[in-house]
Design brief:
Layout: H1 3-29, E1 37-42, H2 46-56, E2 61-65, H3 69-77, E3 83-86, E4 93-96, H4 102-116, E5 123-125, H5 137-140, H6 143-160, H7 164-189, H8 197-222, H9 225-238, H10 255-259, H11 263-276, H12 283-311
Parallel strand pairs: 1-2, 1-3, 4-5
Antiparallel strand pairs: 3-4
Length: about 325
Amino acid sequence: MTITRRAVALGLAATAIQALMLIAFAWPAVNIAPRDLPIAVAGPASAQLTHQLQQRDPGAFEITTVADAAAARNMLADREIYGAIVTGNGAPQVMVASAAAPAVAQQLTAVAQQLSGVPAAAVQDVVATDPDDPRGAGFGSMVLPLVMSGLAAGVLLTLLVSSFGARLAGLATFGIAGGLLSTLVFHTWLSILPGSYLELAAIAGLASFTVAATIVGLATAIGRPGIGLGALTMLLIGNPFSAATSAPELLPQPWGTLGQLLPPGAAASLLRSVAYFDGAGAAGPLAVLLVWAAAGLALLGVGTLRARRETEPAATTEPVAVPA
């Protein structure tokens, strides 16, 4: 292939990637809608309200009937539901946890107003977002920098560092230092998230380490194409379907669920759980991050061992002299 043809092919490949990125980022944004969104209803009109919701938006809500407002409040605090509608004593009361997803809180409030016909339905925010980030815009902007920095670290360690030990040291340094510094920005300076600085730094560091380890591991195991594979997975699937600005149940399925099985979505969910819900619902996303981190390290080890075997000189045997 001539240089000109190669340049044209690279230009076309870049164009295809550009189109894929536009689709990956824009398609979820224009298809935000409830899909089996867990909510609760309570009060004397629970059955009637459940029927109305199912008739109005079939398949939109996964509805649980609870005894009273206290039970709904407990479920919200445990991240079992996104909101609740409590009937009785006049217009329905809406209970939300905007910390779990501000977009869901707004949608549930609008739904309750439409069902009740009251322009301003009573809304109780059981677990609210940080006052410095009431709409969650700052939180939604956190995921991409963590992913991009992890990608950059992985690429640099792959291209500039060759030994297993040095790459491992670089990953550990990036995870620790990156977690501490990034948390200093979004927690201490910008006040995007409340909670323990060290706990949030550990999560941010684990997320950054996981992305970087995945890139290094793939590149070590399968060569430089592993960099592209890892980057496309994190950027084209992981980031737009992370639900950092919405909720997994608002995204097209199965992409919303898949997004939670990738590091960006798991990191966003884990940060929410630890910052706002005292760790409720943290086990799943923590396990996802640990599995990806372990897989990246395993690929790094396997690729290093294979490279060593390939570079080792073949054993030679000297002929043994037999005395006459």
